[in-house]
Amino acid sequence: MHHLIVAACLTASLAHAPAARKPAAKKPSEEYPKSIQVRATTLTQALAHRIHLNEGQYLRIKRLHLQYLNERRELEMSLVGAPVADRDTQLAAAQLNYEQALNDLLYPDQRVAYQQLRANMTAHRL
User: Fold this and answer.
1) Which residues contact 3 (CB under 8 A, 6 or more apart)?
2) What is the tens place of the pLDDT at every residue in 42-67?
3) pLDDT digit string (tens) for 1-27?
4) What does the DSSP assignment read for 12-75?
5) How far is C-alpha 29 from the chain's CA centre?
């Protein structure tokens, strides 16, 4: 919980920092649409609340969420006229890559907590 509060405070302070006068290179997160940035933040905060991420994990997982959500958006846009089976196959591959990358970022006890969370969410949706 402490890590989440610290991350939120850092995010808020960075968001309100005065802009530099020199044109600076865009941050990687600025390359993504605002809707994806908001969704990635929401997903990361929810995950951090449930499985207690440290600050480094929080930042890496948020970056992973940004990449994954952007990849999904691009796939969905590029596969508009494609057969449903092809679209499902490509989206499933993107999801699998995301899951593997996320598992690589989590500690063993966090992986167990994440798997339980997924199982509970899936059961809840049914």
Assistant:
1) 48, 52, 53, 54, 55, 58
2) 999 999 999 999 999 999 999 999 99
3) 555 465 555 555 555 555 544 445 555
4) HHHHTSPPPSSPPPPPGGGGS-HHHHHHHHHHHHHHHHHH---HHHHHHHHHHHHHHHHHHHHH
5) 11
Q: Rounded mean pLDDT of the chain?
A: 82
Q: What's at 96, amino acid-wise? A: L
The residue extents of the domains of the chain are 2-18+33-125
- Tokens 């993107």 locate to 94
Q: For residue 116, which of 40, 47, 67 has the smallest C-alpha distance?
A: 47
